[in-house]
């Protein structure tokens, strides 16, 4: 029985997000039935996928007990790079996509080196590198512009019947990157390291390389997000990624990822990202005044987090609660 | 009723003006889409700016407004002006529904909102963009669906949308022209610029320098005030400490701070320029400082809505239009009309654009 409760507890974050998403989409559809058309579903998917990818990247780092404040700048960097160099030919598109992914991994590796080997606190390290990446984006594109071929834009943002290509992209990212990593030893190392760094080190886990790998994965997800944004906006903008830094943290936490490390799933942050991305749209459609939108958005998020926290309130004693949050 | 001032000069429209006097309401309504008054308001950005094709839809129209950032003074006033403008009787008769959507500075959000507007079958979409290029593809989609798109303030790159703005280069030029008339030769002009690297900053300064270059006797000192009152005050105080022959201050947004710095150290009061900040105008009139203000008006949103209505009802407008600037000098500033002693210094005062027929009472802006 308590085992079942524990398992429920593990999934309560994603579950509350799922309920939130369903409620918000239902409200949206009530006011705007056309949102359930192919075009409408693609709109919702496109609006959420960038944040979902960023949140996945952020989650990998959060699970090691660190955080990545440079994720937004990484997205901008890849976005500017892609929009500047993509050109029209198939070869150049393929080359730029590969180079973009490598840039993301490289940016993540730099974060990893500074944090894991330079022993700089993740907050400070990634805060600093975020300025470095933002600076490179500005050098690449002092002013927003550039171009993305229609073929590439349609490939990522179009839809086939009710199936939006952006959702396929997200699914591919999960199937090709997330699942293999977290079924491998690396995934278990990441969780073990985040759960208890000291015992992970004592058990011989290569903690520095694990920390570095987490940042590289975050960079890879950020690169995919940046490429998707390039397709969605068909241009590059050095400030386009800024909003994703904090929102990716929020989406991950909404989805039940622990800021203290060692706990998290893939579905939670994705649902959290969808919820965060759709709420604002819905509030406008429902006709809530602009000045109240932030207030209500915050209220809904507190409600979702509160639902997820009910489990904690039912803990047998506050000491066990403290013990749990420390672990 | 200042639209009449514009018409009076054109004898061809004298009759219409006379009719306007008789039935004020209907005449102003007519003036919303009247070609002559549109031509006064929407001036081609460059000589070879193309004209946009007009629609011929029967009104009233469904109009959506996609705003990006909100929460600063300018945007708050702008949103209030938008809501007030569409309720004015001569505007309201053209509009069946008007809805404001806010996305914050998140391009993805704004794209998805515009897509949702396409779904909802709006006739026109008015945009203050979160990115100058990021919305281009979704705007092109909207236009393909027959929707009229008008961008203002933060305008967009696509040529399928109508862009409405104020000419920042011209603004910088007019400020400089005011100063070269006022400042004696061989003095220094302190230029308190905006934000380094920003397009608007470069435009304003380019305009100013096109005037100053003909006055080599004036020395220029440039500092960056970040369009912020506090920063303006600091950099001006620093400049006053090192330059003792400052004969004029070319200031932009945030010049209230520059003026406060001068008053604080009891430096000689010199001619100044600035944007339409209530605080600046209050201090300038109080201390009788020769000054001129021109500023990005939050009522541009009303001009953009008007552009949408005009295009839908069959008028052709320039693809990129500049609204004529109104400069106001210290002796012309009237309390409770041009500036508002009872309101905070941060209030943006130019809430009406008379040359475009936009008149917003201050009570509609302050809530």
From TrEMBL, chain A:
GO cellular component: plasma membrane
Compartments, as annotated in UniProt: Cell membrane
Keyword Protein transport listed: no
Residues of the signal peptide: none
Keyword Membrane among UniProt keywords: yes
GO MF annotation list: transmembrane transporter activity
Database matches in Pfam families: BPD_transp_2
CDD domains in alphabetical order: TM_PBP1_transp_AraH_like
Annotated membrane topology: Multi-pass membrane protein
TM region(s), chain numbering: 12-31, 37-57, 69-87, 93-113, 120-140, 160-181, 212-231, 243-261, 273-292, 298-314
Main location: membrane
Keywords per UniProt: Cell membrane, Membrane, Transmembrane, Transmembrane helix
InterPro entries: ABC_transp_permease
Protein name per UniProt: ABC transporter permease
TrEMBL record, chain B:
Primary localization: other
Regions that span the bilayer: none
Alphabetic keyword roster: Signal
Pfam families: Peripla_BP_4
Family that this chain belongs to: Belongs to the bacterial solute-binding protein 2 family.
Protein name per Swiss-Prot or TrEMBL: Substrate-binding domain-containing protein
Residues covered by the Periplasmic binding protein domain: 63-315
Domain of life: Bacteria
SUPFAM superfamilies (UniProt xref): Periplasmic binding protein-like I (SSF53822)
Molecular function via GO: carbohydrate binding
Organism: Acidisoma cellulosilyticum
Cleavable signal peptide: 1-29
One GO cellular component, as annotated: cell envelope
Subcellular location(s) of the protein: Cell envelope
